Amino acid sequence: MQVSKFGGASVKNAEAVKNLLEIVNHLDKSQVIVVSAMGKMTNAFETLIQYYFSGEKEECKAQLKFIKEFHNNIILDLFGDLQHPMLSAFWECVRQLEVKLEQLPSMHFDYEYDQVVSFGEIFSTHIISAFLNTSGVNNKWVDVRHVLKTDDLYRDANVDWLMTEELMERTFSFTETSLYLTQGFLGGTFSNISTTLGREGSDYTAAIIGYVLNAERVTVWKDVPGILNADPRIFPDAQKIDSLSYAETIELSYYGAQVIHPKTLKPLQNKQIPLYVKSFLDRELPGTVIRQESPKIPVPVFILKKDQVLLTLSPRDFSFITEENLSRILALFSQNHVRINLLQTSALNFTVCVDRKDSFVKMVEQLKEFYSVRYNDQVELLTIRHYNQEVIDEKLKDRVVIDSQVTRKNARFVLQSS
């Protein structure tokens, strides 16, 4: 069997859903299809939960109306009738959301987030499952919250692997059908309370299912021809990489490349299940395959992280940067959820490049209690992996370099924003 995952861009409108139908028609038998919320609906549901949680009733009603109209338009394009008999399960879920939003929220935002935002995936999969069935592609809709069991760490839930394996093996038996359709991003507690799996949760869902069911392969369908060596919006000469190892992909992700999140790769790596990244715009293209072993990447990889801050700390008493100082500094970064993208230390200085985010200002004030703090904002971090001097010279032309760090495989430069 195989697992295919379709993200929001691949189901953003009726034409995209029809394209998904064409892809599914050409897939091998015995498939589990994992689908995200449609288009930018996760963002729309995030706006809805903000209004709901803060008690802005009129704004909440207006946002719910927007969400319903978005899905209604897709339904009309696909079925020609909002009350098509195959859509009864969808409308029941709409009523469940309406009832939820009439209740007072709890004091726990992350809990409420998971209960509301999860409807994005539930809506999309009900619509798509019904459309496939009416188009002659018989499938069984599965509520992933009943088979992917997690703890109650809302918005970043941890998988209970033993319970999940037992439930998935029983549910995805392929005795009733050769095609199952389910949701990405979601899980459920033992009490069947909705949870979400955090960043890249839909890819992770596909990997979990692939791992449990011993899939031959997992395919992630995107709007690019595969994994590229750079963001084509920044580097117009970006090239597709045909093959990557799990280890190399994890390295690229660590440095900020928008590839596949390491948590998605780990279960696949454990069973050496290949992961394919393919284009839903042209299913015939070979895409990129990620597997245990892979040839060396033939081109350098460029990763540019914008909106960075270069922060330098020095002890106020001119003492050395000791293990005690490092421990205190890193604890503050962790407590404020500020990710360190580059780190350098000397006897008297501790320098990091970090993402600029709301908690950064609060963290700086905390650091000032113990350290002298200097920082440059409006900087960018360029990582060149598998570099050579010619490539470095080309990419740094006309750029102001503030700091740098070079190792055998990586050359990293903090640049003044262009």
Automatic annotation (TrEMBL):
Pfam families per record: AA_kinase
GO cellular component, as recorded: cytosol
Keyword terms of this UniProt record: Amino-acid biosynthesis, ATP-binding, Kinase, Nucleotide-binding, Transferase
InterPro entries (alphabetical): AceGlu_kinase-like_sf (IPR036393), ACT-like_dom_sf (IPR045865), Asp/Glu/Uridylate_kinase (IPR001048), Asp_kinase (IPR001341), AsparK_Bifunc_asparK/hSer_DH (IPR042199)
Catalysis performed (reactions): L-aspartate + ATP = 4-phospho-L-aspartate + ADP
Gene Ontology biological process terms from the UniProt entry: homoserine biosynthetic process; lysine biosynthetic process via diaminopimelate; threonine biosynthetic process
Superkingdom assignment: Bacteria
GO molecular function, one term: aspartate kinase activity
Enzyme Commission number, as recorded: 2.7.2.4
Enzyme class name: transferase
Pathway(s) the chain acts in: Amino-acid biosynthesis; L-threonine biosynthesis; L-threonine from L-aspartate: step 1/5; Amino-acid biosynthesis; L-methionine biosynthesis via de novo pathway; L-homoserine from L-aspartate: step 1/3; Amino-acid biosynthesis; L-lysine biosynthesis via DAP pathway; (S)-tetrahydrodipicolinate from L-aspartate: step 1/4
Annotated Aspartate/glutamate/uridylate kinase domain residues: 2-279
Family listed: Belongs to the aspartokinase family.
Matching PANTHER family: ASPARTATE KINASE, ASPARTOKINASE
NCBIfam families: asp_kinases
Protein name per the record: Aspartokinase
Natural source organism: Marinilabilia salmonicolor
Lineage start: Bacteria, Pseudomonadati, Bacteroidota, Bacteroidia, Marinilabiliales
